[in-house]
Write a structure and sequence with these properties.
With 287 residues, the chain is of the alpha/beta class. The chain has a single domain, classed as Rossmann fold (3-Layer(aba) Sandwich), CATH 3.40.50.1820. Helix content is 34%, strand content 20%. The chain is built from 9 helices and 8 strands. The protein is globular. The chain starts with a helix and ends with a helix.
């Protein structure tokens, strides 16, 4: 490699990461995401509320492909499926029929409404994925930040899936990206996303893990200053104590935003998020 280029590359990567964090990352990513060759179906209702909608990104020739549900972050009080076109594209290009959902938001709809929405979306995919080339018996859930909380809680906590009519064994794995799995929300602005007077010990996903939960992948950003990395440590300990298969990975050089940005096909140079997610999903498909 040219000597100047060799020493310039780290600076370029740092600059790109800084730019991605500083400007509007959603507009940047979605504006450069090319959906040509994918079948995209938008605003499909999975429940009765106006927020109970999802978009499906499917490979052009999908037939009986595994299905991924992606859940957005936003402190449970903002965010939308429309901001994560890049996630739908990235996972669909790897062969997964991918549903990117919106859900009811706090404070109007505090916990557990948004968890029930995730379960309802999984039930809808179980029953309807075949229409879009997916196998409704091979479901996975991926979430970022608050969405990682939703993903891990709906899959690992007893009750949510069977109560929604999702059959045992249908959800084969869950990926949490920079999720707040074990924290005292009463000390943070996000307390409005939970019922008044609620005890975190009765709500946090780490406190009530079912022993028959499917494999988990926990991805933590080494430079996360939004969600303390201790959340991942505590969640891993809970999975270990319950005997649930899991992988815990700290991704160097990434922060709370760039860790999900690196899921995009266009930003894999930022870090290993996309590879870690796809490797995990492929491993479950081989089981």
């Amino acid at each position: 490699m040219n000597r100047r280029l060799k020493f310039a590359m780290p600076l370029l990567l740092v600059g790109a990461a800084a730019l991605f964090t500083a400007c509007n990352p959603v507009a940047t990513l979605n504006g450069t995401t090319n959906l040509n060759g994918l079948k995209v179906s938008r605003n499909l209702a999975y429940g009765p509320d106006t927020r109970n909608v999802l978009d499906i990104y499917a490979p052009q020739k999908a037939s009986n492909n595994p299905v991924v549900l992606f859940i957005h972050g936003g402190s449970w009080n903002n965010g939308s499926k429309d901001q994560y076109v890049f996630a739908g594209d990235s996972l669909a290009r790897a062969g997964y029929v991918t549903a990117v959902m919106s859900y009811r938001l706090a404070p109007k709809n505090p916990y557990p409404d948004y968890i029930k929405d995730a379960a309802l979306a999984l039930k809808w995919l179980q029953d309807n994925a075949a229409q879009y080339g997916g196998n409704g018996q091979r479901l996975y859930v991926v979430g970022h930040s608050a969405g990682a909380f939703n993903a891990v809680d709906v899959v690992d906590t007893p009750g949510w899936l069977p109560d929604a009519g999702v059959k045992a064994g249908t959800v084969r794995g869950v990926v949490g990206i920079a999720g707040p799995y074990d924290y005292d929300f009463r000390e943070f602005p996000s307390k409005t996303a939970f019922p008044a007077g609620a005890d975190p010990a009765n709500i946090m996903p780490s406190r009530n893990v079912r022993s028959d939960a499917p494999p988990n992948l926990l991805l933590v950003a080494a430079n996360d200053t939004t969600v303390d990395p201790s959340n991942g440590v505590k969640m891993e300990a809970a999975l270990k104590a319950a005997g649930v298969p899991h992988t815990y990975t700290v991704l160097p050089g990434l922060n709370h935003i760039t860790i999900v940005g690196a899921l995009s096909r266009n930003l894999t140079f930022l870090g290993g998020t996309r590879k870690a997610v796809l490797d995990f999903l492929a491993a479950q498909e081989r089981r």
